[in-house]
Amino acid sequence: MMEKALTRPLLVDARIESALGIALFTLLTALGAFVRIPLPFTPVPVTLQVFFVLLSALMLGRKAAISQSLYLALGAAGLPVFTGAGAGLAHLLGPTGGYLFGFVAASYAMGCIARRYRNPADTVLALVLGVAVIYLCGTLQLGLLLHLSPWRAMQLGALPFLAGDLLKAAAVLALVRAKR
């Protein structure tokens, strides 16, 4: 009898499941900020945050933007959830703040594509779009604050991270495909 009870699927209300998913990806994005590799030539570090932003969008759809907004709100309120245990509005308005705002925009845009279209090509498109939106928001703020040309902003804020972020996107794709 006990074996049967343990193998039965646990039914959870959709709203509870959604809230748990949002909370989980808020936490995972914060934890991803602590996996930080600074690069000597740019104020933008390598982190695991992009991985969790991409994964959240494919798992939660547009609701992933809520998890990323909550992450930003926690950091803005003073919790040390940004890279380097950073917190506060100054961090959001600094050179890496654009990437953080890009997390919200990317997860929403990706979520729209991922939930509407279910084939692998659309999933890949959503992942590429997500990385592009994060880079666009990030390099825009980086360039404006540091008075960089668009090309120099790309050299410091996107190109060094492209290979790693494409690997993260490929890992997310593999995880999502294994789940389906």
Care to describe what's here?
The protein has 180 residues and is an all-alpha fold. The chain has a single domain, classed as Arp2/3 complex 21 kDa subunit ARPC3 (Orthogonal Bundle). Helices cover 72% and strands 2% of the residues. It contains 9 helices and 2 strands. Strands 1-2 form a two-stranded antiparallel sheet. Helix 2 (14-34) packs antiparallel against helix 3, helix 2 (14-34) crosses helix 4 and helix 3 (49-60) runs parallel beside helix 6 (97-116). The protein is globular.
Question: Care to give the gist of this entry?
Answer:
This protein has 180 residues and is an all-alpha fold. It has helices at 2-7, 14-34, 49-60, 64-76, 89-92, 97-116, 120-146, 150-157, 162-179, and strands at 36-37, 46-47. It has 9 helices and 2 strands.
Radius of gyration: 17 Å
CATH architecture descriptor name: Orthogonal Bundle
Question: How many structural domains does the protein architecture include?
Answer: 1
CATH C-level category: Mainly Alpha
Shape: globular
| Number of H/I helices | 9
What are the SSEs and their pairings?
Layout: H1 2-7, H2 14-34, E1 36-37, E2 46-47, H3 49-60, H4 64-76, H5 89-92, H6 97-116, H7 120-146, H8 150-157, H9 162-179
Antiparallel strand pairs: 1-2
Helix pairs in contact: 2-3, 2-4, 3-4, 3-6, 3-7, 3-9, 4-6, 6-7, 7-8, 7-9
Properties at a glance:
single chain, 180 residues, mainly alpha, Arp2/3 complex 21 kDa subunit ARPC3
